[in-house]
């Protein structure tokens, strides 16, 4: 990687940030595309977020990705926010252009591209169940409704958080789709599991090898597609779905696609998806068990 006086800086603001795979695949993408950008991890403490966002302007950076725990708070420091980011109330990409900081959210679009592109699953008129009510669940729920699901069910360990998401979704999409809440302790019933076409784990459960299996895939009908947002390992959920012969996919594609959309926002060039994936595949050998 050659750094010159013309090199543009991008990066990721997070706390923690050391686990992020974005520097790896974004730098691989810039290199493969011959784009003179370099991507850094920036450890930004919660109290320093405003200052860090201001520094995008003062350092004339091309933009940044934003991750935990800054995705919501960062909205307050931007000049403009895209309609998706406004709806989801979270920003994962900032672009600095014409003296303005513009916030986007590419997570939902990344999920849909992975689901349809790699998974070959068309969400139109389907019934989806989302496990979780955190940032990933918000982005995925909005994206699924926009992609045309017929019914969206939400369930979460902390019911209050699922209610907040449900109320928010209803505000935007009252007539577009049936949106409902499922009690977390009732999710493992054949009434719920038999009546979905798509199951998404949007919780952080599965990231660690000792994590439990939240749902019983034995209850799913053979056509149900199982998507797990966890990308650092093959989760118990994915293993069980695979054993049952269900179509299924882990979250690596969502990670790559959301990054590819950020790349395209910053550079106006098509992202080299295969190079990004190859860079990650190499790295994954080190930690996937
Ligand atoms: P992200 O932005 O990655 O979605 P998050 O906002 O911290 O992360 O959300 C994590 C999600 O995983 C939440 O839905 C959380 O449930 P709670 O709202 O009840 O905390 C869910 N989660 C984490 N650990 C869990 C567990 N052991 N069992 C069930 N759900 C869990």
Topology:
Layout: E1 8-14, H1 22-33, E2 37-43, H2 49-58, E3 63-66, E4 80-81, H3 83-88, E5 93-97, E6 100-104, H4 107-118, E7 127-131, H5 135-146, E8 151-155, H6 159-173, E9 178-181, H7 190-193, E10 198-201, E11 225-228, H8 236-243, E12 248-249, H9 252-267, H10 273-287
Parallel strand pairs: 1-2, 1-3, 4-6, 7-8, 7-10, 8-9, 10-11, 11-12
Antiparallel strand pairs: 3-5, 5-6
The structure holds 2'-monophosphoadenosine-5'-diphosphate.
Can you offer a commentary on this structure?
The chain is an alpha/beta fold. The protein is built from 10 helices and 12 strands. The strands form 2 sheets. The protein has a 6-stranded mixed sheet with strand order 2-1-3-5-6-4, with helices on both faces. Helix 1 crosses helix 9, helix 4 packs across helix 5 and helix 4 crosses helix 9. The protein is globular and about 60 Å long. The chain binds 2'-monophosphoadenosine-5'-diphosphate. The site of 2'-monophosphoadenosine-5'-diphosphate has 14 residues, from helix 5.
Number of helical segments with 4 or more residues: 10
Q: What share of the residues does DSSP label as strand, in percent?
A: 15-25%
Task: Find the count of extended strands (DSSP E, 2+ residues).
Answer: 12
Shape: globular
Strand order of the largest sheet: 2-1-3-5-6-4
Radius of gyration: 19 Å
């Amino acid at each position: 990687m050659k750094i010159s006086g013309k090199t543009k800086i991008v990066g990721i603001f997070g706390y923690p940030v050391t686990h992020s795979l974005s520097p790896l695949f974004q730098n691989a993408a810039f290199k493969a595309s011959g784009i003179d950008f370099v991507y850094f991890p920036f450890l930004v403490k919660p109290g320093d977020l405003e200052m860090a966002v201001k520094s995008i302007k003062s350092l004339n950076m091309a933009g940044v990705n934003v991750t935990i725990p800054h995705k919501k708070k960062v909205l307050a420091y931007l000049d403009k926010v895209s309609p998706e980011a406004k709806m989801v109330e979270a920003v994962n990409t900032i672009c600095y252009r014409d003296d303005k900081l513009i916030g986007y959210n590419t997570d939902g679009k990344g999920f849909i591209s992975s689901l349809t592109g790699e998974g070959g699953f068309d969400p139109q008129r389907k019934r989806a169940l989302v496990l979780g009510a955190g940032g990933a669940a918000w982005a995925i729920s909005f994206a699924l409704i926009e992609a045309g699901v017929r019914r969206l069910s939400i369930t979460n360990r902390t019911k209050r958080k699922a209610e907040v998401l449900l109320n928010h979704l209803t505000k935007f999409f009252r007539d577009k789709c049936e949106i409902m809440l499922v009690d977390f302790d009732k999710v493992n019933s054949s009434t719920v599991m038999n009546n979905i076409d798509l199951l998404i784990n949007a919780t952080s459960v599965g990231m660690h090898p000792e994590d439990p299996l939240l749902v019983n895939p034995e209850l799913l009908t053979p056509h149900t597609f199982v998507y797990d947002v966890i990308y650092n390992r093959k989760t118990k959920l994915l293993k069980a779905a695979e054993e049952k012969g269900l179509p299924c996919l882990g979250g690596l594609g969502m990670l790559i696609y959301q990054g590819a959309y950020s790349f395209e926002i910053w550079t106006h060039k098509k992202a080299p998806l295969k190079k990004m994936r190859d860079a990650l595949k190499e790295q994954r050998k080190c930690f996937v068990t």
